[in-house]
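Support request, please re-run this one:
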Amino acid sequence: MAAGAVTVPAQAAPAQSSVAGAATAKTAVAVPSITAKGGFVMNNGTGKTLYTKAADTRRSTGSTTKIMTARVVLAQPNLNLDAKVTVQKAYSDYIVANNYASSARLIVGDKVTVRQLLYGLMLPSGCDAAYALADKFGTGSTRAARVKSFIGKMNATAKSLGLKNTHFDSFDGIGRGNNYSTPRDLTKLASSAMKYSTFRTIVKTKSTKQKVTTKNGGYRYMEWKNTNPLLGSYSGATGVKTGSGPESKYCLVFSATRNGKTVIGTVLTSTSATSRASDAKKLLDYGFKK
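Re-run finished. Output below.
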């Protein structure tokens, strides 16, 4: 009898183990399938990685580059967001010269504030606003020198943030073949930018109407809508930035907060604007369940 008593728990143990295993399998969250070639998601509070797909493969970034443009501006010492910048003809000429460039439709001679340029940069993805900011915050005696200096600041910031697979050769994502990052790096960049309250306020804004001063001293209103499809369509969405282009295809750096948890991530080289949004929503859903 004593020997039999010993064998009963020994036989029961595997059965209990398999039941526990089945329960674990039921609660496991299915990893989503996305059309984007690269993806990365992390818990913004803890920095914990939640999802990866070719997360460290370098790809063209399109206008998600503008996250770094804003990040460099916001890190300037003694930054005055209300400082006025006069819109130069060079900025609108640049839009014309790059016929696929997205624009904030800045008008030559208008005086706009740095804050307004950041809205024009991040909502309609204005390459003219990016140019104006690079011209304003770069150093040098010529516009070309100032722009080069600003792009240098972008790369120095990438290095300081430990973004080893990131390089910029433009202020707006219209690169010359050497503008690249990865889903992991862009997510880390966005996480860093989101530490600035001005950045957080801007990237969660669906639309804005800004009063600017005209060349003649009067005023006009500039109206900008955010290109981020998640704002208003995904509960808790807080940003961040779309990107697209012939090489980059469709990109999206995204973030959302629910019940105190913030999930932030990136998809690069998605197949369409619709797929880009769908990919991001799948990854956010997955991130919140993890």
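The two ends are 48 Å apart (CA to CA). The first strand starts at residue 38 and ends at 43.
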